[in-house]
Design goal:
A hairpin with a 4-residue loop joins strand 8 and strand 9 (about 195-199). This protein has a 5-stranded antiparallel beta sheet. A 4-stranded antiparallel beta sheet has the order 3-2-1-5, with helices on one face. The protein is of the alpha+beta class. It has one domain: minor pseudopilin epsh domain (minor pseudopilin epsh fold, 3-Layer(bab) Sandwich), CATH 3.55.40.10. It has helices at about 1-10, 15-65, 170, and strands at about 70-75, 80-85, 100, 110-115, 140-145, 160-165, 175-180, 185-190, 195-199. It has 3 helices and 9 strands. It is elongated and about 80 Å long. The termini are far apart.
Length: about 200
């Protein structure tokens, strides 16, 4: 009989003080891990933004070449969006324009900064390109039917965009470059240790 009582006693579960201690330990672990989780999510969102931008540029180039018509990629800094127009997308403002918002999923528009973080190197990227200036708070990259990006005099023009998160600059900084002669798109991430953007 005493053996049976012992088994029943051992199956009663946690006491209230034990449960409070377990919950307290869990709360401390969550509090310590939360900043890392949020930072990781922010980095992931900026990484996906970089991939989305590179994908849009590549799509614009491919469409220009396949349709034999100029297609323009526009970065709109005021509204933090990317727009494809020309060719099958119609003239700018047409309902066929492909519009992609950069903000959302935890990233606010005012957090997305065009340019380099203050302490980052201002040297050209490894492909020789450097920060392109905005005109009326926009940057247009027009791909011609041969896939190149050229100026009015038919000279190849390189274009490069740099971005970072306002509050987490060094961890989120990236660049996307387009080489004018062939229209090739490259993506770059900022490396804090070397203070350089690496492909």
């Amino acid at each position: 009989m005493p053996k049976l009582q012992k088994n029943i006693h051992s199956q009663r579960g946690f006491s209230l003080p034990e449960m409070v201690i377990v919950l307290l330990v869990l709360a401390i672990l969550i509090t310590l891990a939360l900043p890392q989780i949020m930072s990781g999510r922010r980095l992931f969102m900026f990484s996906s933004m970089q991939r989305q931008m590179a994908s849009s540029l590549t799509q614009a180039r491919q469409d220009a070449m396949s349709e034999r018509l100029a297609v323009t990629f526009r970065y709109d800094n005021a509204n933090k969006r990317m727009i494809l127009f020309g060719g099958k997308y119609g003239a700018f403002g047409d309902q066929r324009n492909l519009v992609q918002e950069m903000s959302g999923s935890g990233v606010n528009g005012y957090d997305i900064i065009f340019g380099r973080p203050g302490n980052a190197s201002t040297q050209a990227l490894g492909d020789g390109t450097n920060l392109s200036n905005l005109t009326d708070n926009k940057l247009d990259i027009t791909f011609l039917p041969d896939g190149s990006v050229r100026d009015a005099n038919n000279n190849p023009v390189n274009k490069t965009m740099f971005f970072y998160h306002d509050k987490h600059a060094a961890d989120t900084a990236f660049a996307v470059s387009v080489l004018g002669a062939g229209g090739r798109t490259k993506v770059w991430r900022y490396n804090k240790q070397t203070n350089r953007y690496v492909e």
